[in-house]
Amino acid sequence: MSRYIPVRNSAYPILLALFVAIFLISNITSTKGVMIGPLVTDGAFFLFPAAYVIGDVIGECYGFKAARRAIWTGFFVTLIAVAAFYIAIALPAADFYEGQDAFAATLGLVPRIVLASLAGYAVGQLLNAWTLTRMKDRNAGKLWQRLLSSTVVGEFGDTLIFCLIAAPVIGITTVSDTVNFVVVGFLWKTAVEVLVMPITFQVIKWVEKKENFGEVA
Predict the structure, then answer these.
(1) Burial level of 198, CB count in 10 A (0-12/13-18/19+)?
(2) Residue 138 included in any domain
(3) How many independent structural domains does the chain possess?
(4) What is the model's pTM?
């Protein structure tokens, strides 16, 4: 009779997959500079906050080690994706293929953008997970206070690092526009997480129930 390693019925692999996918997609969409009225941001502004929501769920439910594992998984998957993009771009195009320039322009991520994204992501997510789990370990604050505090710390670190490194690459060159880029990005991402905090609460409750863990504090 064949033997297989049993797969545990856990929500963690699902959350991990979503976490990595959102970060990978955001790396591509963030290469586009976006201006909405007087606000300057990038093309990942509407999606990337979801990575912090999922990161909060992982940190709150599974702890810092599990969150750190998810963060580094996303980091290395993105490195693999970037390498694959460059290899695909370098491969000779077929005679009938007319999209080489567009393909290269979209997926040929500028090294500085990759550096900005990876550095901001690693620092911001680690700060977010560390702040949340540290507060929980010390019984410092209720769940909403942990989520809010970790969001502010993590998003500020992420946004500041990403924007300072990436701004010149996407065409932001003046000090005022750079400050605008940082402030708008930070306030937007933080505001989105605050607005969806009730959803984060429910997801945490669902995960804890699925994993037969206690109640939300």
Answers:
(1) exposed
(2) yes
(3) 1
(4) 0.80
